[in-house]
Amino acid sequence: MTTTVNKARQVLSKGAVLEWLAVVTSIYIILLAVGMIGAGFKTATGGQASQLFEFASNPFLGLVIGTVCTALIQSSSTVTSIIVGLVAGGLPVATAIPMIMGANIGTTITNTIISLGHIRSNKEFERAFSAATVHDFFNLLAVIIFLPLEIMFGILDKLSGWLTSAISGGSSMSIKGFNFIKPITKPVITELSDLLLALGASTQVSGILMIFIGIAMTFTAITLMGKFLKHLLTGKAKEILHSAIGRGPVKGISSGCVVTVLVQSSSTTTSLMVPLVGNGIFRMRDIYPFTLGANIGTCVTALLAATAVDGDRGVFALQIALVHLLYNTLAVLVIYGIPTLREIPPRMAEKLANIAAGNKSFALAYVLGTFFVMPGILIFASK
């Protein structure tokens, strides 16, 4: 009996080691992919990648791009990592900031879809839908507050620029000195570029192919890493949830941040809350601070991705990653810190959930309107 138990432990231990190796491999693939996207844009545009994004110079278009892309991919971590790669390839930071804001809105669609699983029971659906949409309304309110401020004063651009300068000492050499990623990613990127050229692809086509390969790799790696981490950390995550939710806003926000860092997906973290509220285990207002912490925790992916970029563009890649962190942190401090603003998301979520519970088709209209129709209207208005 003892021998059997010991063998079982050995198998489990080996399995855990393999899964952790898979997580490390996924992280490497993300870093490689981000570097590939940046290199691809530089190659495809001959170093003039910023010209490709003149169509997104309007901040509303940038917001729409971030929202729709994230709603379709259902991963803000993937989209923000791609944005870091685009900035590394020449996309101006000021253009990328609204995209980051849009990514925050787009990621909330996952929660809303999860809440539809409770649609057979009006009471459960009302609770679940309110838990899902409180995140929507918080992120929408954050954009309403910070996008006009950014357009008028460039607060995030200036603050992130100051922090980047403080970290790098005003020189890209400092960032490069910390960059231990380049030696393990650049040879692979160079080999792939040479291979595509050897296969007959032109310089422009080679760059475009590298971009698409990098995007596909980013999406795949983040998905796989999330699955492995959820499996490895399920027990610990559950313990954190049960000990933290409903025990004060500071602890709730901190726990949401920690769990999201562990599973590398705010969509996953917040989606776990929706069924718990739907089943009456927690109230929507209990999980409200937890979802805000998830917004902060998801910024780790972009910061990690920024380490894959060096040189002059490495400074800007770090800056847009810091924009993501600053934006989500300031949104929590301002909206949750001011009682009047704090109450807007939960009250709006409760009202919307009450309407949706009485008319299920309204829930579908809300999803389509918020994540697809409204972005379309913004595009039309911006023109």
Automatic annotation (TrEMBL):
Mark the transmembrane ranges: 20-39, 60-87, 93-116, 137-156, 205-226, 287-309, 315-341, 362-381
- Tell me which domain of life the UniProt entry assigns to the organism this sequence originates from: Bacteria
Membrane topology, as annotated: Multi-pass membrane protein
Q: Do the record's keywords include Transmembrane helix?
A: yes
GO CC, one annotated term: plasma membrane
| Matching InterPro entries | Na/Pi_transpt
**A Gene Ontology biological process term:** sodium-dependent phosphate transport
Q: What is its main location?
A: membrane
Localisation per UniProt entry: Cell membrane
Pfam families, per database record: Na_Pi_cotrans (PF02690)
Q: Which UniProt keywords apply?
A: Cell membrane, Membrane, Transmembrane, Transmembrane helix
Gene Ontology molecular function: sodium:phosphate symporter activity
Query: Which NCBIfam families does the UniProt entry name for this protein?
Result: Na_Pi_symport
Q: What is this protein called?
A: Sodium:phosphate symporter
Tell me which species this is from. Answer: BD1-7 clade bacterium
Upper classification of the source organism reads: Bacteria, Pseudomonadati, Pseudomonadota, Gammaproteobacteria, Cellvibrionales
